[in-house]
Amino acid sequence: MATTNPIQFVQQVRSEVSKIVWPSRREVIVTSIMVFVMAMLTAVFFSLVDFAIREGLKGVLGAF
After folding, report:
1. Where along the chain do its domains lie?
2. What confidence tens digit (pLDDT) does each residue in 7-42 have?
């Protein structure tokens, strides 16, 4: 591996950091709300699937 001069390294890091595009406050809020809504929908879906499987097993096992 080639060694890099510490000064060059810092310059390269600063150059790369300047390329970062940070999201706006609105983008962060909208994305956070979308994540929360999707998590809630997923939780409801899996709760319904769990309920259906549980009731199905109760019906099958209750017949025996």
Report:
1. 22-64
2. 999 999 999 999 999 999 999 999 999 999 999 999
